[in-house]
Design a protein that fits this description.
The complex is a heterodimer of chains A (318) and B (307). Chain A has two domains: 20-49 and 150-204, no CATH class; 65-122 and 129-148 and 211-279, no CATH class. Chain A is elongated and about 85 Å long. Chain A contains 16 helices and no strands. Helix content of chain A is 57%, strand content 0%. With 318 residues, chain A is mainly alpha-helical. Chain B has helices spanning 2-13, 41-44, 70-77, 99-112, 141-156, 180-191, 199-208, 213-219, 250-265, 284-299, and strands spanning 32-35, 50-56, 81-85, 117-120, 122-126, 129-136, 162-165, 194-198, 225-231, 234-236, 239-241, 272-276. In chain B, α3 links the parallel β2 and β3 (81-85). Chain B is globular and about 45 Å long. Classes of the chains: A mainly alpha (318), B alpha/beta (307).
């Protein structure tokens, strides 16, 4: 037996899996895990913040419905009901006042919102609530414009940035199987592998919107920032369509200045929609509209004199 | 012209002993502006040839915290001046002006890089009670002393000149020792303060007291006017109310024209005018028409019938 053969025999006798001792492999695995975590999040950041294709931004301008859907999945329903109310087709509580005519030029989503509101008014079961996910083609439209990810996009994207973590996890898993086969303890490595699930959980989540979608929404929210509810926009000044556009871009907050009864009606109620969702299990949106994030929902609908500062001008002597 | 120039020359030469801003230094504001209100920010942003906006100072956060609305910041970035306009300093309070309130005005001016700040010749609190209203000052020597001290203290703590505004009043305090124009002239003489002439207030006061607004305008120390307010009002129970929620009457626009002419005749140039609208905002077209009417009133000759 040669000297080399003696060494092989000693290693085999030692029984280290892949000839690497457990502690050494653990240190190596931890180092590779750290590198993989950093690499995954760097790749993810670069993927999700990539400069959008100019062509995706400069095509036909988005419709109010599309912007509403980008902001919130239930946005188109909110826009549709606001339009129905503005046109005098439904009253402030969602009861039908008249049937729409061709002159109203209602789109498909608005027509279906009217049917949903009528159905809910006839049979107000939570599962009938209009905000419980009105099937519409708006999602398909924005996905076709690559402003939202399709399921295929999401998995393709994940492959783009999850591979370092996946590679290290695979290595760990193989070592565990080898270790078990070799009769070696693997509990520490198993724990390390389990801990990798934490960054994986964060890395696997995807935003609703693509960088182009985020850019389109942010651009229009910036362009029409004066319609934000906190500005208490004068709808008489901006015209009736402003309320629809404000609802599309910023949620239902501005409706408080337009018609508080309508804004707080159960057909738009976030609470009602959420309760309905909990009961029916049909509600899939992450935000139900309602008052949304606006801080103005509880404020007075009356216009302030003197620029909101109390007294400084009209009738105050200033 | 000679009188105006002489007064201005004297003012330039005079520097306040209390602060670093030359009393006679006249800020460069001209053209037509508007009172910035968030409710109509979208229209304001698209007004043609907008020279400046006036922002309620107390709407820019509270003492210790400061926030410039992004819509104002956008205008500022376009080179449109923003003038902080205080409404709660209470320059007429016998107990003096609060240092924190002056500091807030100063912060507004610095944050907005404003050419000047403005306040009212009025008091809003007394004896620990907040009136919630701009109350007119008695036109007495005693009141003048109070105003002078408060204005000097304010000027001393501001990085930019101060302009003070004549307020509208539905009544007059008894025992007045000055007419309104004499009172303002004396105030200017004592403090070197600039004037923010509210043309609508001048009209309201003259009309409610049975005086001729053109005569009142004639007696105003026009050479010290930094800029002017123009607002709408309405008559109710025989009194004219400066509501800021109604259209600007033709009579007020005639005063704008008369004042612009007077300043031109004095060789001082047309001062800056601005529209104040504080509620019941009209449709965009009407708002634009009001703004355009002020622009037109500053350039066209006064109709003979109005003289």
């Amino acid at each position: 037996m040669t000297k080399d053969n003696d060494l092989d025999v000693s290693l085999l006798a030692n029984g280290d899996t892949w000839s690497i001792s457990g502690p050494t492999f653990l240190r190596l695995f931890l180092f590779l895990s750290a590198v993989a975590i950093v690499a995954t999040f760097v790749l993810r950041y670069r993927y999700l913040h990539a400069e959008p294709d100019e062509e995706l931004l400069s095509k036909t301008p988005p419709t109010a419905m599309q912007l509403a859907f980008l902001r919130d999945a239930s946005g188109p329903t909110l826009v549709a009901m606001t339009t129905l109310h503005r046109l005098g087709i439904i009253d402030s509580r969602g009861f039908t006042l008249r049937m729409p005519t061709a002159a109203d030029q209602l789109d498909d989503v608005t027509r279906r919102a009217l049917s949903a509101v009528q159905a809910y008014r006839a049979d107000p079961r939570p599962s009938q609530h209009p905000l419980n996910g009105l099937n519409s083609s708006i999602g398909d439209e924005v996905r076709a414009r690559r402003w939202m990810y399709t399921e295929a996009d999401i998995w393709r994207a994940r492959l783009n940035f999850l591979w370092p973590l996946a590679a290290v996890a695979t290595l760990g898993a193989i070592r565990i199987f080898a270790g078990i086969s070799n009769g070696k303890p693997v509990s520490l490595l198993l724990l390390c592998l389990a801990l990798l699930l934490i960054p994986l959980f964060f890395a696997i989540s995807m935003p609703r919107l693509t960088p182009a979608g985020q850019r389109v929404l942010a651009h229009h929210q910036q362009l029409y920032s004066y319609l934000q509810p906190q500005n208490r926009p004068s709808l008489r000044t901006y015209g009736p369509e402003a309320v629809t556009f404000s609802a599309a871009l910023f949620g239902a907050g501005t409706l408080m200045f337009y018609d508080p009864t309508f804004a707080t009606a159960d057909i738009l109620s976030a609470g009602e929609a959420a309760r309905a969702a909990a009961r029916s299990g049909q509600y899939t949106s992450n935000n139900s509209g309602g008052c949304g994030s606006s801080s103005s929902c509880s404020s007075s609908s009356g216009s302030s004199s003197c620029g909101g500062g109390g007294c400084g001008g009209g009738g105050c002597g200033g | 012209m000679a009188v105006g120039a002489a007064v201005e020359e004297a003012a330039v030469a005079r520097t306040s002993p209390l602060h670093g801003v030359s009393v006679g230094w006249r800020p460069e504001i001209a053209g037509v502006g508007i009172g910035w209100r968030p409710e109509i920010a979208g229209v304001i942003a698209t007004l043609p040839e907008l020279s400046f906006v006036e922002v309620i100072a107390e709407s820019l956060g509270h003492y210790g915290s400061f926030a410039v609305d992004p819509e104002i910041a956008k205008l500022h970035n376009r080179g449109i001046d923003a003038i902080p306009h205080g409404i709660r300093l209470s320059l007429g309070s016998a107990t003096g002006v609060e240092t924190e309130r002056i500091a807030h005005l100063a912060s507004c001016a610095e944050a907005l890089n404003s050419p000047l700040v403005s306040e009212h010749i009025a008091f809003v609190r007394a004896g620990g009670i907040e009136a919630g209203h701009l109350l007119p000052m008695p036109r007495t020597r005693e009141a003048l002393e109070v105003l002078t001290a408060n204005i000097r203290k304010t000027q001393a703590n501001l990085p930019v000149p101060l302009a003070v505004e004549n307020v509208a009043a539905l009544f007059e305090w008894p025992d007045a020792e000055f007419t309104e124009s004499e009172f303002l002239a004396e105030l200017v003489e004592r403090t070197g303060v600039l004037l923010l002439l509210d043309v609508a207030n001048l009209y309201a006061n003259a009309r409610n007291c049975g005086r001729d607004p053109f005569d009142e305008l004639e007696r105003m120390p026009v050479e010290h006017v930094a800029y002017c307010h123009v607002a709408g009002g309405a008559e109710s129970d025989g009194m004219y109310h400066d509501t800021h929620t109604h259209p600007v009457p033709e009579a007020v626009l005639d005063l704008v024209t008369a004042f612009a002419e007077k300043r031109r005749d004095a060789g001082l140039g047309v001062p800056a005018f601005m529209l104040e609208r504080d509620g019941d905002y009209p449709p965009e077209a009407e708002l634009r028409a009001e703004y355009e009417a002020i622009r037109a009133a500053t350039t066209q000759p006064l109709p003979t019938a109005a003289r």
